[in-house]
Amino acid sequence: MAEVKVYHNPRCTKSRNSLIFLDEKGISYDVHLYLQDSLKHDDLKNILTQLGMTPQELLRKNETVFKEQFKGKKLTDDQWIEAMIKYPKLMERPIVVRGNKAVVARPTEKINELFD
Asked: Is residue 18 flagged as an active site residue?
């Protein structure tokens, strides 16, 4: 098992760039295609802890599904987590995890923070 895990959307340029970045650094990684293989509630909650973010901070507020179904709504953290599980496009990407730390790799160079 690789020491790094990437929550990846192959259609996202930033996500693809994170894999290129890791390849260029010679860092092995596992890819989790979160749009196809949904996260579990506890897994996403753990990732948020590793990121040091709230669910609201991980939301992509420009996504159509956010604008149509969630804009202006006040949800609990657990409800936002469930929304991201049901609609994984709501999650910022890519998320790169190493050990007990994680970053949203935007810009890609944020991955370096996992190795400081």
From this structure: no
With H, G, I as helix, E, B as strand and everything else as coil, classify residue 59: strand
Give the domains, in start order, of the chain with CATH numbers: 4-115 (3.40.30.10)
Candidates 12, 27, 35, 85; catalytic one: 12
Q: What angle do CA 24, 25, 29 make, to 5 degrees?
A: 95
pLDDT digits (tens, 9 = 90+) for 10-22: 999 999 999 999 9
Residue pointed to by tokens 């948020």? 48
3-state class of 91 per DSSP? strand
Q: Please tell me the pTM assigned to this model.
A: 0.94
Q: What are the E-state strand segments in the chain?
A: 4-7, 29-32, 95-98, 101-104
